[in-house]
Amino acid sequence: MRYTQLILSLFLLFTFVIALPAPAPVEAVAAQEAADKPKKNGNKDKTTKGTTTKAKTNANGKKPAADSDKCVAAKKLANGIDKNIEAQKQEQTDVAKIKGIVSKDKVDQKAFDDAKKQFLTTINKGIDIRKQNQQITFQDNAATAGLKKVADAQAKELQQAKDLKGNKNDLTAIAQLEKEFVGGIDQNEKNKKDVSAHKSSIMRKA
Hints:
By secondary structure, the chain is an all-alpha fold.
């Protein structure tokens, strides 16, 4: 009876061992890993290529924000320069009125005082507009230097206007102011062209 049980136990053990899966040979595992490696690298290359293409599309498909901001600023600056030119033309009108008053043998002092007050108001308005334009302008804009010239001229014109006394002696200063206003308008016209040229350059690069 004991021999029978022993034989049966050995038979069951042998059957169980045969049923277990055999471990894969080392060579087979290495071969499988070598076969899978190119596939992984291929997927990685596809991912990298897709990312690069997308970045290129973003760079060329949409204008950089900095350039967009500069275009908006250029348009706003051109409008501001137009306003400054309008103020300069009003300065010409105001100084012509003063010239007419002081050219008379008998100067109407009240008329002169009122005209001078209006003249100074117009000059200060032009100065405020120019200051706003300087805040709008941006680095490497050719109009920046031109606006500095306008600022220097306005400071000189303001002082000349303040020094007017209300007699024929003012005619020399008035003649100088007339020349300066013409030069100021020419300078602002040049500034506007510089702004337009710079804007066109930005748009070509975008």
